[in-house]
């Protein structure tokens, strides 16, 4: 700890070959490892989802049995949240943030590697449960008392509690690293007030993780003790309280959804200005709205518990905070629209995904406000309305944002451009497939179809919406395949990207594509919010904001 | 911990000060949130319970925990003194300070072990027992981590690895130890006094 070397130590296993990847501490390689691994988990999650939708395509279908269906939605939810979106956004952050800041690496490169390997290990551990026919089956929020030993005697829930705790450690390690990197390793002149918006959102997200994950650790530890040692935390007959689980879990779980969406919002805030040829409108507001969302995100958790009979005043409080959180969110949306307003918009794939994000996120945000209305929530809680709502924000929001980011930064990571034509095909397949799959769910929810049922009887009025929903899935799958095809072809034959294919404004586009291991031969000095723009236009740089 | 303090292989441009300090502080902050959650869970259960203490264990025996508390809290002094000493380049006092802290921490753990084995109630017998053993257990585990941290630092100090300029590990061990102490204040207050 005390001895520190100035020069970069040589990679012990060289810079080529498998061993060099297994032992790497380079933030760019770790970023790529995160991205590739989490994309693989995405494919698994999509497969599980496709099986569920297939099962529900018709009444009394027999693709999956009830027990298998429970495992599918549990592993689908757990995978999409913990093994796909979080590590994917960590991967993008890992790759891009140090470059944006003009740093040479993350603050703690070895801790960074540790975080990745622990994530991979936890993912494999969770999935090893299938080998024992004991995949977790308690839903992604594993409510007690159902998940107590008495009602879930198998190993299924044991896999889940251990797996998510390991993932928590990995996320905390990554977050410590992000916070320190962003607070301490910025290029000279890059004040907080000049930092790219993606770095802002990654910083806020890291703090959210540091404050939210301990609640999950606490909740899961107590469940583990109840299950393994016979303590009584969640046991109502003995004086424990099952609602304690819900409080602790959602004290983590609600900030978690902002953990998933904020980095995606950061990506959108990078893409929209570049493809509109204008600076981001209302920088200060966009930056601080993230902070506001983070604060409010910690005082809305009980809106997941309106149906549990909380006191009326408590319900009113949580309904109100949940509605207020729409304000900073809307601030962002208005600023993106204002950024586009009067700009010279280039409708290239990253921008298409950004616009798709905005449209779908507005829709998901609206249904979100509707379930903050307590009596309405009583009507639709635990129905497909809720499933529709959160897929609009998680998939329509975070996943579209992620694809935007992947299209945007792929040239930086590989030195080659993705095919734009295939990018547009992918976008439209995904947009159409997504809406086909998830729009009917709102209707189903209003008609009373509960979530987490493995089948239903005919003639309840649910047949057609379920069929439509199932028909959307092939579009989504095709879209993902088009993306994979695009990547594999462009990796070998894509046009060379050059350093700055999008005429962008942030520092990652100053480095070569792909960047050298040390990122920058010379660390640039920053004078404004668009350092690369200033370098490209020395005659008319941006007016420098207050430091 | 040693991973966290690892030398940044390619430190960035702006870091005038060791970024490990920020890292350690942020990590401790997250640990503090964990204990906040555990204490909140305890308070939640306690104040929604009809009967809290199972009839036969009331009241908690206070003498040993109180003595233990005094020992743990005062153990923050030698570790602080150790840090001050190495800042002035005094390696001898560094070693004495670390060793003293370690011994006091070990006595605390011994006291805890005695209490656990002589408690007269079990984690399985009542919610009170569950919370008692879990909260003190979580804290005890952190004390053990702190002791390990101190021991490693002590060994490095004995080998002469620290100087007036380079001694971040000493400071980090000290911070962690203060943190473990501070948590105990809240645990003692809520478990024994409330
Ligand atoms: C191919 C695209 C997807 C399809 C067809 C799909 C389908 C479904 C279905 C049918 C359910 C509900 C199962 C039930 O309640 O019975 C579900 C649940 C869920 N999905 Fe998706 N989904 C997709 C993508 C995603 C993505 C990208 C995410 C998040 C990033 C996600 C997160 C979740 C979560 C958290 C649940 C709740 C699981 C639970 O009830 O415990 N899904 N999905």
Descriptive overview:
The complex is a heterodimer of chains A (547) and B (194). Chain A has 547 residues and is an all-alpha fold. Chain A is built from 16 helices and no strands. Chain A has a single domain, classed as Cytochrome c oxidase-like, subunit I domain (Cytochrome C Oxidase, Chain A, Up-down Bundle). The longest helix of chain A is centred in the first third of the chain and has 36 residues. The relative contact order of chain A is 0.10. The N terminus of chain A is likely disordered. Chain B has 194 residues and is mainly α. Chain B contains six helices and no strands. Chains A and B meet through helix 4, helix 5, helix 6 and helix 7 of A and helix 1, helix 5 and helix 6 of B. Bound molecules: protoporphyrin IX containing FE (HEM). The site of protoporphyrin IX containing FE has 24 residues of chain A, from helix 2, helix 3, helix 13 and helix 15.
How many beta strands in the DSSP annotation of chain B? 0
| Name of the CATH architecture of chain A | Up-down Bundle
Determine the mean pLDDT of chain A: 94
CATH level 3 topology of chain B: Four Helix Bundle (Hemerythrin (Met), subunit A)
The assigned CATH architecture of chain B is: Up-down Bundle
Question: According to CATH, what is the class of chain B?
Answer: Mainly Alpha
Q: What are the defining features of this structure?
A:
heterodimer, A: mainly alpha, Cytochrome C Oxidase, Chain A, globular, disordered N terminus, B: 194 residues, mainly alpha, Four Helix Bundle (Hemerythrin (Met), subunit A), 6 helices, 72% helix, 0% strand
Describe the protein's topology.
The complex is a heterodimer of chains A (547) and B (194).
Chain A: H1 17-22, H2 27-56, H3 66-101, H4 109-128, H5 156-184, H6 197-229, H7 242-276, H8 283-297, H9 312-324, H10 326-340, H11 349-372, H12 374-380, H13 384-414, H14 420-446, H15 463-493, H16 531-536
Chain B: H1 19-48, H2 63-74, H3 76-87, H4 91-117, H5 127-158, H6 168-193
Helix pairs in contact in B: 1-5, 1-6, 2-4, 2-6, 3-4, 3-6, 4-5, 5-6
Bound molecules: protoporphyrin IX containing FE (HEM).
The site of protoporphyrin IX containing FE has 24 residues of chain A, from helix 2, helix 3, helix 13 and helix 15.
């Amino acid at each position: 700890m005390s001895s520190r070397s100035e020069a970069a130590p040589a990679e012990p296993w060289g810079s080529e070959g498998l061993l060099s990847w297994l032992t790497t501490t380079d933030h760019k390689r770790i970023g790529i490892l995160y991205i590739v691994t989490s994309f693989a988990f995405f494919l698994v999650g999509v497969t599980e989802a496709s099986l569920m939708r297939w099962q529900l395509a018709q009444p009394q279908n027999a693709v999956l049995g009830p027990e298998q269906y429970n495992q599918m939605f549990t592993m689908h939810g757990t995978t999409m949240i913990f093994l796909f979106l979080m590590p994917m956004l960590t991967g993008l952050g890992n790759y891009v943030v140090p470059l944006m800041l003009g740093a040479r690496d993350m603050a703690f490169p070895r801790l960074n590697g540790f975080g990745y390997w622990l994530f991979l290990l936890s993912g494999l551990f969770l999935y090893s449960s299938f080998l024992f026919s004991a995949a977790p089956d308690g839903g992604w929020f594993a409510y007690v008392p159902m998940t107590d030993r008495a009602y879930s005697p198998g190993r299924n829930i044991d896999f889940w509690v251990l797996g998510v705790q390991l993932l928590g450690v990995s996320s905390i390690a990554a977050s410590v690293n992000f916070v320190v990197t962003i607070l301490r390793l910025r290029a000279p002149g890059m004040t907080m007030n000049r930092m790219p918006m993606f770095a802002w959102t990654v910083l806020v997200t890291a703090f959210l993780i540091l404050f939210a994950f301990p609640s999950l650790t606490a909740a899961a530890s107590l469940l583990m003790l109840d299950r393994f040692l016979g303590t009584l935390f969640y046991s109502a007959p003995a004086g424990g309280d099952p609602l304690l689980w819900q409080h602790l879990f959602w004290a983590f779980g609600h900030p978690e959804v902002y953990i998933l969406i904020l980095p995606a919002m950061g990506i959108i805030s990078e893409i929209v200005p570049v493809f509109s040829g204008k600076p981001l409108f209302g920088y200060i507001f966009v930056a601080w709205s993230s902070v506001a969302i983070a604060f409010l995100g910690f005082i809305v958790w009980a809106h997941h518990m309106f149906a549990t009979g909380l006191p009326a005043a408590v319900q009113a409080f949580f309904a109100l905070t949940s509605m207020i959180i729409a304000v900073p969110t809307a601030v962002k949306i208005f600023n993106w629209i204002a950024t586009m307003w009067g700009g010279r918009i280039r409708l290239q794939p990253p921008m298409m995904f950004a616009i798709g994000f905005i449209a779908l996120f507005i829709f998901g945000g609206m249904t979100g406000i509707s379930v903050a209305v307590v009596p309405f929530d009583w009507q639709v809680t635990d129905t497909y309305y809720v499933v529709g709502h959160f897929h609009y924000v998680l998939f329509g929001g975070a996943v579209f944002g992620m694809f935007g980011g992947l299209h945007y930064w792929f040239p930086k990571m590989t030195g080659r451009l993705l095919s734009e034509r295939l990018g547009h095909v992918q976008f439209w397949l995904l947009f159409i497939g997504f809406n086909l799959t998830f729009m009917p769910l709102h209707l189903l929810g209003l008609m009373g179809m509960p979530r987490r049922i493995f089948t239903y009887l005919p003639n309840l009025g649910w047949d057609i919406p379920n069929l439509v929903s199932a028909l959307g899935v092939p579009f989504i799958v095709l879209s993902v395949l088009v993306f994979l095809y695009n990547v594999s072809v462009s990796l070998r034959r894509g046009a060379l990207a050059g350093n700055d294919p999008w005429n962008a404004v942030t520092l990652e586009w100053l480095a070569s594509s792909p960047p050298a291991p040390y990122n920058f031969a010379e660390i640039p000095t920053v004078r404004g919010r668009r350092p690369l723009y200033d370098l490209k236009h020395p005659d008319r740089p941006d007016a420098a904001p207050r430091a | 911990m040693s991973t966290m303090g690892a030398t940044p292989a390619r430190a960035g441009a702006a870091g005038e000060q060791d970024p490990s300090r920020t890292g350690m502080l942020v990590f401790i902050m997250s640990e503090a949130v964990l204990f906040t959650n555990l204490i909140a869970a305890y308070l939640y259960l306690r104040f929604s319970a009809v009967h809290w203490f199972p009839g036969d264990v009331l009241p908690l025996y206070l003498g040993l925990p109180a003595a233990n508390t005094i020992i743990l809290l005062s153990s923050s002094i030698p570790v602080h003194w150790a840090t001050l000493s190495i800042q002035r380049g005094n390696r001898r006092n560094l070693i004495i300070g670390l060793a003293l802290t370690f011994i006091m921490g070990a006595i605390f753990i011994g006291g805890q072990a005695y209490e656990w084995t002589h408690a007269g109630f079990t984690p399985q017998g009542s919610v009170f027992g569950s919370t008692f053993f879990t909260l003190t257990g979580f804290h005890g585990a952190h004390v053990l981590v702190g002791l390990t941290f101190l021991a490693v630092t002590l060994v490095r100090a004995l080998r002469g690895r620290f100087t007036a300029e380079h001694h971040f590990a000493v400071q980090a061990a000290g911070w962690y130890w203060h943190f473990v102490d501070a948590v105990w204040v809240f645990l003692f207050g809520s478990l024994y006094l409330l």
